[in-house]
Design goal:
alpha/beta; four-stranded mixed sheet; 19 strands; about 25% strand; globular
């Protein structure tokens, strides 16, 4: 019979650390903790096989940090390997900056980053120690009042409209409209753990807010954990690359008001799932992992990159330039990224991007993770090809390599100016990477291949 265990560990930084995201060199430092951050872990064991899934109330982590977490866990839990451990980030922008190479989007705190891997790992280690026989049930419930597609719906409506109980986006089909809820009960019938899978940026609180918290998912999970004492909930971030919350880019007081509203909406969806969940037969536990090389655009040659460098220098290298000017700060981010790419190409290094695509099977459930902010169309095309009865395509897993743009975004970026297109072109430049050429199809194929390893005879 399946055994499962759950545990949590506090990963809240001290007030004052730099918060993640929302513009170049904002000096957006936290002033207080509104809600604590956690790493919450679920461990599974069946027929001698083990696996662990960790959900972190963090914006993102570098692949190197995730590798360190895995190493710490493996050293203390015999039998676990790298492919058995999946680390998923919620992508809250009200958490600490955690990426040293992500210039301009927040400065990580070295002491916090040094101790963080051990705290995340401890949640997993404790979850393994808490393994006990469990029954599993699941439900897919409506969740239509959280997100809108920021690429195709553009800006959010006025806040007064969004806060109405029956609000939903103009094009809900371009967002996640359902939340998958999985519950785990012990032999005494006690709810010991639950998982909630949903895809939407946790950006109710944005660049004008300065409080530490996990945004709507973590607050919803914390509310439910208090409602069900002794339980631990794990949030699993889905395909959120082009989906924002209905409230975004508001003033601090408005954002904090909306935060509790959106958290309550998400908690209501999870609560309905916990009630509606029906039993699952868990007779298989399997894991798989593949390192995938993603192709990059050939038109970003060394010559073109040097042209971009010269264009940026026209703005930056003048006595009139002001660091108070957002354009100057933004072009600084791009400029530094382009310089890194030029140095890479001049050294003869091949400009490839290799990332891990991972899968964990728990009976009919398929947890599929990749280190990207995945757009909805990629998830939809992936799900259409999968064999698993209950697939979950999870972004921001085991690292972060920026956006995985859908084919429409890739096509628009290629037909416009080569430096145009935020997700498809500009974000890779910020990270010092060449833009992706065909990540939509390549990622769908990678997910499909990994899932086939988990469900070989489905």
């Amino acid at each position: 019979m399946l055994k499962a265990g759950f545990a949590k560990y506090d990963i809240t930084p001290r007030a004052g650390v730099s918060l993640y995201g929302f513009g170049p060199y904002l000096n957006r430092n936290s002033i207080a903790v509104r809600d604590y951050l956690e790493a919450r872990a679920a461990a599974f064991a069946l027929d001698g096989k083990m696996a662990v899934i960790i959900g972190c109330d963090l914006c993102t982590l570098q692949a190197e940090t995730c590798a360190r977490v895995r190493d710490i866990i493996i050293a203390q839990v015999p039998g676990l390997t790298k492919k058995d451990i999946l680390i998923n980030m919620s992508h809250t922008h009200s958490g600490p900056a955690t990426v040293f190479s992500d210039r301009g989007w927040g400065t990580p705190d070295p002491p916090y980053m040094e101790i963080l891997p051990y705290k995340i790992a401890q949640a997993a280690i404790d979850a393994v120690q808490n393994l006990e026989e469990m029954t599993v049930s699941a439900a897919l419930v409506p969740c239509r009042h959280i997100g809108l597609n920021r690429v195709y719906d553009r800006d959010a409506p006025p806040l007064a409209e969004v806060l109405k109980e029956d609000w939903e986006p103009a094009h809900p089909e371009l967002t996640d409209t359902e939340c998958r809820v999985i519950r785990f009960d012990n032999k005494q019938g006690e709810l010991k753990g639950f998982m909630a899978y949903f895809g939407c940026h946790p950006v109710v609180c944005c660049q004008k807010t300065r409080y530490i918290h996990g945004d709507y998912p973590a607050i919803a999970i914390h509310n439910l954990m208090r409602e069900y004492p002794g339980s631990i909930g794990v949030f699993l971030q889905g395909a959120q690359g082009d989906v924002n919350t209905g409230c975004v880019h508001k003033e601090e007081n408005e954002s904090l008001l909306a935060l509790d509203v959106f958290a309550a909406r998400f908690a209501n969806a999870i609560r309905k799932g916990l009630v509606a969940a029906t039993p699952l037969q868990i007779n298989q536990l399997a894991t798989a992992s593949q390192n995938v090389e993603f192709s990059t655009r050939k038109d970003f040659t060394l010559e073109h990159l040097k042209e971009l460098q010269a264009e940026f220098e026209k703005v930056l290298h003048t006595p009139e330039a002001s660091d108070a000017d957002r354009e100057v700060r933004m072009k600084t981010v791009y400029y530094l990224g382009v310089k890194r790419m030029i140095a890479q190409l001049e050294s003869g290094e091949k400009p490839v991007i290799t990332a891990e695509v991972q899968g964990i099977r728990l009976g009919p459930l398929a947890f599929l993770g990749a280190p990207f902010e995945i757009m909805q169309a990629i998830k939809n095309d992936t799900v259409a090809k999968l064999r698993a009865p209950m697939p979950m395509v999870m972004g921001l897993s085991n690292g972060s390599y920026g956006y995985a743009p859908d084919q429409r975004s890739l096509d628009e970026a290629k037909t416009s100016a080569r430096s145009g297109g935020y997700a498809a072109t500009m974000v890779p430049l910020m990270h010092g990477r060449l833009p992706y050429a065909n990540i939509h199809d390549e990622l769908v194929n990678a997910f499909t291949h990994v899932e086939a390893l988990l469900f070989p005879s489905a």
